[in-house]
Amino acid sequence: MRDFILVASSQDLAGVTMVDYLKTKQGFAPDGIHDSEEGQSFSSPAHGARLYVANASLLTLETLDRTFPDARAFVFLSKHRSDSGIPTLTCHCTGNFKDAPFGGNPKEIAVALPGLQKAYLKAVTGAGAPGYDVIIEATHHGPTSLKKPVLFIELGSSEKQWADRGAARAMCDSLLGVLANGIRPCEKVGVAIGGTHYPTKFNKLLLESELGLAAVASKHALEAIDEAMLAQMIEKSAEKVTHIVLDAKGLGSHKDRITKMAESTGLAVLKV
Question: Where in the chain do CATH 3.40.630.50 domains reside?
Fold first, then answer.
């Protein structure tokens, strides 16, 4: 059986809060299967997922494929940090468009699973955590080289929220519900370019349309988007990419270049 692997770190307070909820309320218990100095694994008879608590930073876990060669995908349970301190629940796939200051390899995008991100975003938005914003983030940070899809689900944006068991419950229950129902591939999948790090236009598409999203490049990454990077964004999706989604007002001086590049792929170009 190919399990989804939920990944947390003992260094990450939000992850620790979610792990505590999974252990005390969802029946995850040590199973001794993947225990070592690097981490400990847990499982629950009621859920088709395994939990792995690593001792290292989540951003550096580039060898999980060796520990879990039959994994279907990796879902990282993480803190979200923001200077604003606004209570926020986020999710995103990982990758670096240029440099790699926060883990992973430069110019490498991780594999995305659009159906999982879309289903989780809709579920956690519907579940509601009072006082929290819910939104996707643009693709950023590591790990980037895992062969199986990666999704980060994050609780933020400060220590107060990282220890919030109510928000952790909403996130974990939403995720487990999605996994229990099965992940349906999206018939329409886009890679998205432009806009801010918190792309409200793309978030709306996920909630209100049939479209799923793989990699998302914000306006801060536009200089790094060339033919090779766009091709990698398209290829690194576990579901076939059918669209290039452009935030037409969020492309700045790169608008003409990016638009022509998108049109040259032969994929449908959707401007929002």
Answer: 4-181
